Amino acid sequence: MSATAEATNIAAPRSGRIDPKYTRSKGKSGNFEMLAWLFMRLSGVLLVVLIFVHLFSNLMVGEGINGIDFGLVAGKWASPIWQIWDLAMLWLAMLHGTNGVRTIIDDYTESDKVRFWLKIVLYAASTAIIMLGTLVIFTFEPCMVDSTGQLLDRSPSFCFDQAAFN
Q1: Which end of the chain has fewer CB within 10 Å, C or N?
Q2: Where are the domains of the chain?
Q3: What is the CATH number of domain 33-146?
Q4: Tens digit of pLDDT for each residue in 48-84?
């Protein structure tokens, strides 16, 4: 082999030793990363369906964007189907986003201590948003009453129609 042939021989990527400052402490993760990868793909597909049905039902059916108000949300959440639909959208979107940000933290944070605290903040924020969102969806009461049990004037119109039947 000539000298020019040896000079153009390029070593394969990652064939050399990795600088120790770029290595992380290796814990036993098992199949977690593979399951997280699979979750991202499946939740992404499911989120596309959930979001497009949500948008279609809110924007294309009825009055369109002009019809989106407190009464529309209250009417939808009167149905357990829409409560579960919106709950699934909330949970999947938050878990999908949290997993994505976790991956970014793992990829771009060099210090184990900083990585740990960033993940703690991420998980705490995600847990709080999921819990508060779930609480709002299942405890939402559109027909507001005063201390005597009478409907308030600012209640949606369907509350007054419902009160007439009671």
Answers
A1: C
A2: 33-146
A3: 1.20.1300.10
A4: 999 999 999 888 887 888 888 877 888 888 889 999 9
